[in-house]
Specification:
The complex is a heterodimer of chains A (about 325) and B (about 425). By secondary structure, chain A is an alpha/beta fold. Chain A is built from 11 helices and 9 strands. Chain A has a 5-stranded parallel β-sheet. A 4-stranded parallel β-sheet of chain A has the order 2-1-3-4, sandwiched between helices. In chain A, helix 1 packs across helix 5, helix 1 crosses helix 11 and helix 2 packs across helix 11. The two termini of chain A are about 20 Å apart. The model of chain A has no long low-confidence stretch (mean pLDDT about 90). Chain B is of the alpha/beta class. The two termini of chain B are about 30 Å apart. Helix content of chain B is about 30%, strand content about 25%. In chain B, strands 1, 2, 3, 4, 5, 16, 17 and 18 form an 8-stranded mixed β-sheet that branches. Chain B has a 5-stranded parallel β-sheet with strand order 9-10-13-14-15, sandwiched between helices. In chain B, strand 17 and strand 18 form a beta hairpin. Classes of the chains: A alpha/beta (about 325), B alpha/beta (about 425). At the A-B interface, helix 4 of A face helix 6 of B.
Chain lengths: ~325, ~425
């Protein structure tokens, strides 16, 4: 397998820090490129040489099985050398600053750095200090651009277009970088976005994003095409945002009963990992008629291949040899 | 042999007396020996040292009521000496230091230490504030009487709000026994814990933990009620919201003995200036909405806000080069205090005399200092200001040991040209380089 077509420029920036800075043509081009990788990933020979000689470092300050393995597989299928670094084995615990850690890695001359960090703005900070491509794999409550892109790819493959689609994002919007990235992307692509959550899990002034706000699931889900559930991020709950998980499930957990309010044929998404019986009922999560959750994981690898490919084209332009 | 310095052709502005006229001033033995519109108008003074001000503004040296240094404990950030260099370059002749050091200034011997270190190393006057509660823990009050005797000019827990209203009430009542001034910080500690930006649309976009602006008004209202109970003299070190301003305006109307200040950066910057996680603009309280910023300017113009402070808080680069939520709070400001304040005059929001009042006579009156005036017999702490000198801020040119200015690259009009403390020239812009 080789990429026969001339590699056209897809991204203006040499980093992928968030959806907010992306233009519609950039998003469309990334989705189109990802389609080719979906096909590749379904074939027997899944390997290309697009990133041959390139080094990809996965720098994860927060544990993540799903995203990290997705990036790792994407890098390997594109032919890159992939190294995984997680906090527990690094010197961050010895008081080294984020910048120091990154500078040390930078000296090893990686071409692409995938970073996940618990603080908003961490990826942006690194992009200013390092000379490799930085890919934000989730920074605090800010953005998680590849998640939004893979969600978009999943939606587009099912529904064709975004214009006129009504998407409800439900749950812990306050702490969710997935929600922020998806709001940016869906609004840019012409979808209508609703947020459904108790008032304690919505940021102040959320309505000024250009979204509709609901506090009742049934009203909020009326006429919705896509229901995106968010993980109730128990590990982030520094205060009591909801009184109990059983009360949360009663009012905000997605089950077939609540889903009836949505448009017939409405589809359900979840970025994972799921809290079954908290924000989503297993009967919905495992219902292959409505749940896109497995498909999202598949699209994740394709999207990350597309992102790595697109950014590496910038490296070639800059004349940076591997 | 007494040293005499004569200033001629100055625009004299003494906000304490309302003087704003062309004239001269004579310094003799470190004090203002003569001042007036007619002084040196006709004949040249027959003194060895004559400074022709060429129409520039001669005013009392500035008094900055909110300055953090790193001495003792974090001298790598700022010493009293390095802060005094920054102050002199900013036209500030008295810095009022915060007790948030290591160790905390909560002992008479530590007040004495600050005074002696300042006397030995600082180019400007240092007026130390002492802690209101031991260790700034908000539990037990300090020895206010003894600390006052040692030379503490006021009592504050610095950038901490005393969470317990009963502790605050008793501290206010006890302070009032000695006529001591209490200086408060207004941010509800629970609402603001772990947050680094003001709540709103912008905070949501950045995905940062945010505190509502009301966290300030809640404490302002509480403290004013406690002042009404206790009768203590109380000064809000800095406010940043229109809601707090309204509460203070109403309290002043009722005759409550409260005053307040505002930090220069809250007059010149708003929440959007945080940009993409610009940590040099992470301050406490955080930069607010544009409506709040405009309210602060209006507050100074109307006089409800009494003083303008730098809120000078030097931080080393490594504590600022962090993800926003992890980065230290604080910005240096001694050298940009006057330029920012003069911006209000250039924008037509306040007269030059009004702006200078908030930097000289007002803090002097609140603190009970003899400084901040051009009166005959007063200490010769004066500053020569070119109100139109145009320049851009460059961190490398700052005199402060730390260079975390929130105004990097920003253009201003007006700054200090020469600064005198006790008749000694401690800064001369022309003499440099």
């Amino acid at each position: 397998m080789t990429s026969a077509a001339p590699a056209e420029t897809i991204l203006k920036s040499s980093h992928l820090l968030g959806i907010e800075q992306l233009s519609v043509p950039e998003i469309v081009a990334l989705l189109d490129l990802a389609e080719t990788y979906v096909a590749l990933n379904r074939s027997a020979d899944k390997k290309t040489s697009v990133l041959r000689g390139r080094t990809l470092i996965n720098l994860f300050f927060e544990a993540s099985t799903r995203t990290q393995s997705s990036f790792e597989l994407a890098g390997k299928r594109l032919g890159a050398d992939v190294m995984n670094m997680s906090v527990k084995t690094s010197s961050v615990s010895k008081g080294e600053t984020l910048i120091d850690t990154a500078s040390t890695l930078n000296a090893m001359r990686p071409d692409l750095l995938v970073v996940r960090h618990q603080d908003s703005g961490a990826a942006e900070l690194l992009s200013r200090k390092l000379d490799c491509c930085v890919i934000n794999a989730g920074d605090g409550s800010h953005e998680h651009p590849t998640q939004a892109l893979l969600d978009a790819l999943t939606i587009r493959r099912r529904r064709g277009a975004f214009q006129g689609l009504v998407v409800a994002i439900c749950g812990d919007v306050l702490h969710s970088r997935v929600a922020r990235s998806n709001i940016h992307l869906l609004l840019k692509m012409g979808a209508r976005v609703r947020l459904i959550a108790p008032r304690t899990l919505l940021p102040a002034d959320a309505d000024r994003f250009g979204v509709e706000i609901f506090h009742d699931m049934k009203t909020g889900l009326e006429g919705v095409d896509i229901v995106m559930m968010l993980r109730l991020q128990l590990e982030r709950m520094s205060g009591a945002f909801v009184p109990s998980t059983r009360e949360y499930f009663r009012f905000y957990g997605l089950d077939h009963e609540k889903l009836k309010a949505a448009k017939p044929g409405a589809l359900v998404m979840h970025p994972g990992p799921m809290n079954r019986g908290v924000e989503i009922d297993s009967a919905v999560a495992d219902d292959i008629e409505v749940s896109l959750i497995q498909e999202q994981v598949e699209m994740g690898v394709a999207i990350r291949m597309a992102v790595l490919d697109a950014l590496s084209r910038g490296l070639a332009r800059e004349g940076r040899n591997a | 042999m007494t040293r005499r310095i004569a200033f001629k052709n100055a625009r004299l502005i003494d906000p304490a007396s309302g003087l704003d006229a062309k004239g001269g001033l004579l310094i003799e033995s470190g004090r203002i020996a003569d001042v007036g519109p007619r002084l040196f108008n006709d004949a040249d003074p027959s003194d060895p040292e004559v400074i022709d001000c060429k129409g520039l503004v001669l005013a009392p040296g500035l008094i900055d009521m909110r300055v953090f240094t790193g001495e003792p404990g974090s001298e790598y950030r700022e010493t009293l000496e390095s802060a005094s260099h920054a102050a002199a370059a900013g036209g500030v002749t008295t810095i009022v230091t915060m007790p948030n050091t290591d160790p905390v200034i909560d002992e008479p011997s530590l007040v004495d230490f600050i005074k002696r270190r300042a006397g030995a190393t600082a180019k400007v006057r240092v007026a130390p504030m002492a802690a209101l509660t031991k260790g700034l823990r908000g539990e037990q009050m300090t020895e206010i009487g003894l600390l006052q005797e040692a030379g503490a000019v006021a009592f504050t827990d610095g950038d901490r709000t005393i969470a317990n209203a009963r502790v605050m009430r008793r501290a206010l009542a006890y302070a009032n026994t000695f006529g001591a001034l209490v200086v408060g910080h207004a941010e509800d500690p629970d609402l603001t814990e772990g947050t680094s930006i003001t709540e709103g649309e912008y905070a949501m976009r950045l995905g940062l933990p945010a505190a509502p602006a009301a966290a300030e008004a809640i404490v302002v209202e509480r403290d004013i009620r406690l002042v009404e109970l206790t009768g203590a003299r109380y000064h809000f070190s800095q406010i940043s919201t229109g809601a707090a301003l309204d509460i203070i305006a109403a309290a002043k109307q009722r005759g409550v003995p409260v005053t307040c200040g505002v930090a220069a950066h809250h007059l010149a910057l708003n929440e959007l200036d945080v940009g993409s996680y610009y940590t040099f603009r992470k301050v406490k309280p955080p930069l607010r909405s544009e409506a709040d910023r405009a309210a602060m300017v209006e507050g100074v113009a109307s006089g409800i806000i009494d003083v303008i402070v730098s809120s000078h808080d030097p931080q080393a680069a490594d504590t600022k080069r962090q993800p926003f939520a992890q980065a230290a709070f604080g910005a240096v400001g001694l050298e940009t205090l006057l330029p920012v304040a003069l911006g209000l005059m250039h924008d037509g929001r306040a007269s030059l005399a009004h702006v200078l009042h908030a930097l000289t006579a007002a803090p002097a009156r609140i603190l009970g200092l003899g400084a901040g005036t051009l009166a005959k017999g007063a200490a010769a702490d004066v500053v020569l200001i070119d109100p139109n000198d145009s320049f851009a801020v460059h961190h490398a040119e700052l005199h402060s040991r730390a260079q975390n200015t929130p105004f990097e690259g920003r253009h201003f009009h007006g700054r200090a040209v020469k600064t005198f403390v006790g008749g000694e020239c401690v800064f001369d812009r022309k003499a440099r380089r």
